[in-house]
Amino acid sequence: MAFGSIRRGGGAMFLGTHTPRLDEKGRLFLPAKFRDKLAGGLVMTRGQERCLYVFPMDEFVKVTQTFQQAPTSSKAARDYMRVFLSGASDEIPDKQGRVTVPSALRDYAGLDRDCTVIGAGSRVEVWDTAAWDEYLASTEQAFADQSEEVIPGLM
Fold first, then answer.
1. By residue range, what is the domain housing residue 74?
2. What is the pTM of this model?
3. Is there a contact between 109 and 115 (Cβ–Cβ < 8 Å)?
4. How many separate domains does the chain show?
5. Residue 34's domain is classified under what CATH number?
6. Is 154 within the bounds of a domain?
7. Contact assessment for residue 127 and residue 51, using Cβ atoms and an 8 Å cutoff
8. Per-residue confidence at 154, pLDDT binned at 50, 70, 90?
9. Would residue 7 count as lying in a domain?
10. Percentages helix, strand, coil for the chain, rounded to the nearest 5?
11. pLDDT tens, 23-65?
């Protein structure tokens, strides 16, 4: 499938699916069409469903600013922020477009060798390929059935 990013309003919308491999040092080749937007720095952290979220640095700053508006009296907000931010690692890709995935994040997402990298709008997600295939198979029917209920008027 095609893989790219679309710039909108100063940000990027990441799209598509790619299947790179981790090398023996735990480095991941970023897809070519994502590299420019991530070249200045990125933050990767724990995502939901045991994937990793990868944000361009400017997008990560926006996310953390939103967190600052959450009430610290909310246990759910505190818990979410703790898990999300404690796993965060800022990285700068090398000249070949590789980024090191810290071992704690590789363990969290079950990344060994085969990865699936997907564009998810303002972020990129990194999945273990078997976990992604399982996730996609389990959610495709719900996707087909609920498009009108989840986002009214979408299609």
1. 17-144
2. 0.86
3. no
4. 1
5. 3.40.1550.20
6. no
7. yes
8. low
9. no
10. 40, 30, 30
11. 999 999 999 999 999 999 999 999 999 999 999 999 999 999 9
